[in-house]
Specification:
The complex is a heterodimer of chains A (199) and B (396).
Chain A: E1 5-10, H1 19-28, E2 37-46, E3 49-58, H2 66-70, E4 76-78, E5 84-86, H3 96-100, E6 107-109, E7 114-116, H4 122-126, H5 132-136, E8 142-146, H6 153-160, E9 163-164, E10 176-179, H7 183-186, H8 190-195
Parallel strand pairs in A: 1-10
Antiparallel strand pairs in A: 1-8, 2-3, 4-5, 6-7, 9-10
Chain B: E1 3-7, H1 17-42, H2 51-72, H3 81-84, H4 91-121, H5 126-136, H6 144-177, H7 190-218, H8 223-255, H9 258-269, H10 273-293, H11 295-298, H12 301-328, H13 343-366, H14 381-395
The chains are: A alpha+beta (199), B mainly alpha (396).
Chain lengths: 199, 396
């Protein structure tokens, strides 16, 4: 069996330092105002019963990726190892992938004028290194590796820990597994937002 | 339980006014073509006299529709990639071929529809004559067999044009309907709703264009056109009935489709109250429906024009509410995504609308727009007979 890259993020370890977002920007020359990788922070409850949660987000490199399915020119494609990439020389910038991605993972790079997103630091992984966000995480919350390899760290974590993914109902089959995520952080509370419960 | 987000990334709405307007234009093209093909395809005699006005309008709308998309592309010079690389799972990829096939089919149809009148005008001299000569490609035969061939071919390509019109607008419904991430778009009704609202807006715009055309071409609106407009207004009433039934079904099911669907429905009722309830459904659908229920109102030109204007504004609001409203509901994070149209987008929308109007007026001015049964100003009784026989011929 070939490789299947995936990422496990242990939220019990995340301290919300945003170093992953910074490392990603630095590694990938991501323009101002847009992110390939970012950390949402939220607090639920009322004093004195409150809890704070964080959710690092990045492209889920889905098994059944909406972006790959809707791209009209096959500029977005998936490698055998599961990595979803964008061919920057082919992308016409129709933005269908951005509208279709359930995770807001994509944006238009205004300098390159194409769609763009996390590549699992393709060039680093190819050179045997870890993605920049994994490499920089101060608490070791992120683990990256081959889900088809039973000896890999990601395999062990997914097999032994209670993991959740964001929006499994879309049938995108996302490959970012969170340990210790609350339901509130995995998806926006649309009813709260629309009904005005959230400030 | 309250949840407060401390840090999140703001996302942008990338599909804005230009995409909504693209859907609007293709819809009106398909709607007006299907309506005016009733004469050629289904042999309904009274619609034959507006076939020329309708097909030119459908062609011009469909040529300007995809220009909105080109202006929306971040890499417009790479638009040809759409033809080189095809992705069968992408509705947008199917659309590229439909957006070529449909106008080409309409162009061939209109060539056969116009050919004999182009031949008659070719000897008049001047700019028009040389234009006609060019457009004829040397096919100047006016024998009975040639005319019969024109009728047959016109009917064939018009008949082919109807399913193409349904597809060219139906596929845009799939563009939104296939996006599973957004409850507001993700419904099998979407292509059908798009088609029905296309019939409503296509009919509405056609009534206005037809009236302006008759007014400027003949100075007044003749009795038979008045009767036809009352007839079209009656059809428009039924289109609105079906369209509003679909919208009600859509909304009820959306309301009961999990948290995302309920939130989307609530958003449309409350946050989008003015544009969804008042403009799209109140002024754009209910009011024209109530107006057109009365037979007396349908025979009053002014009232029909008011109803038509209301429907085309209502359907424009519907396209904008769906395309932009669908992206205002966030997929991540904790607040609604804000949209503001860029001045570039607004300029493109206005510029293309004006340009489409100019091109259509130009075509109506230079092409022989005489209709079957009414001879052009400088024609003889011979052409009258021909026109009459033409009318009979098409009726067969």
């Amino acid at each position: 069996m070939g490789k299947r890259y995936a990422m496990v993020i242990d939220l019990r370890r995340c301290v919300g330092c945003h170093a992953c977002a910074v490392a990603c920007k630095s590694e990938n020359n991501v323009p101002l105002g847009v992110f390939r990788n970012w950390v949402e922070e939220l607090e639920t409850g009322k004093f004195p019963s409150v809890s704070r949660h964080r959710l690092p987000r990045l492209c889920n490199h889905c098994e059944n990726a909406s972006c790959v399915n809707v791209c009209p020119v096959k500029a977005t494609y998936q490698l055998e190892d599961g990595t979803v990439l964008v061919n920057y020389d082919r992308c016409i910038g129709c933005k269908y992938c951005i509208a279709a991605c359930p995770y807001d993972a994509r944006f238009i790079n205004e300098e390159r004028k194409t769609a763009e997103k996390c590549t699992y630091c393709y060039e680093r992984v190819g050179a045997g290194l870890q993605p920049a966000c994994v490499n920089t995480c101060i608490a070791g919350a992120r683990t990256f590796g081959d889900l088809n390899d039973p000896t890999s760290e990601v395999f062990k974590l997914v097999a032994t820990e209670s993991v959740a993914v964001s929006k499994p109902e879309t049938n995108n089959r996302p490959q970012t597994y969170y340990i210790g995520a609350t339901e509130k952080s995995l998806r926006p509370s649309l009813i709260d937002i629309v009904l005005g419960g959230e400030k | 339980m309250t949840t407060v987000h401390f840090f999140q990334v703001d996302h942008e709405i990338y599909w804005g006014l230009l995409i909504a307007l693209y859907f609007y234009y293709t819809g009106m093209s398909a709607g007006s073509f299907i309506l005016t093909s009733l004469g050629t395809v289904f042999g309904i005699e009274k619609y034959k006299k507006v076939a020329k006005v309708g097909v030119l309008m459908a062609i011009v709308l469909l040529i300007f529709a995809p220009l909105h998309l080109i202006f929306d592309l971040s890499q417009p010079t790479r638009a040809l990639n759409l033809f080189i690389h095809t992705n069968p799972t992408s509705a947008m990829s199917w659309g590229v071929y439909l957006l070529i096939l449909y106008p080409v089919c309409l162009l061939i149809y209109s060539w056969f529809l116009f050919r004999q009148d182009l031949v008659k005008g070719v000897n008049n001299g001047g700019f028009k004559a040389s234009l006609y000569k060019f457009l004829l490609f040397g096919k100047k035969d006016l024998s009975e067999t040639a005319l019969e061939n024109d009728r047959k071919k016109a009917k064939f390509f018009a008949t082919l044009g109807v399913p193409l019109a349904l597809l060219v607008h139906g596929y845009t419904g799939f563009i939104l309907g296939n996006v599973g991430a957004r409850a507001i778009w993700h419904t099998p009704l979407m292509p059908v709703i798009f088609l029905m609202s296309a019939m409503v807006s296509g009919t509405g715009l056609f009534i206005i264009v037809l009236m302006l055309f008759e007014k400027f071409k003949n100075g007044k609106i003749s009795e038979d056109i008045r009767a036809l407009i009352a007839d079209i207004a009656n059809l428009m009433k039924w289109f609105i009935v079906v369209d509003s039934a679909l919208m009600i079904i859509y909304f009820i099911v959306l309301w009961n489709t999990g948290e995302a669907g309920y939130a989307a429905g609530y958003f449309m009722l409350h946050n989008d109250f003015w544009s969804f309830m008042v403009l799209e459904n109140g002024l754009g659908m209910l009011l024209p429906l109530l107006i057109l229920l009365s037979k007396k109102a349908r025979q009053n030109l002014t009232v029909v024009v008011v109803a038509s204007i209301l429907t085309i504004i209502g359907v424009l609001a519907m396209r904008i509410n769906l395309v932009i409203g669908g992206q205002e509901l966030p997929l991540t994070g904790s607040h609604l995504v804000e949209y503001s149209a860029s001045s570039f987008d607004i300029m493109v929308v206005i510029g293309l609308a004006v340009a489409a109007g100019i091109v259509l007026t130009f075509l109506y001015t230079v092409l022989p727009m005489n209709r079957a049964g009414v001879s052009p100003k400088n024609s003889t009784s011979v052409t009258d007979n021909k026109a009459l026989s033409n009318q009979k011929g098409v009726a067969r």
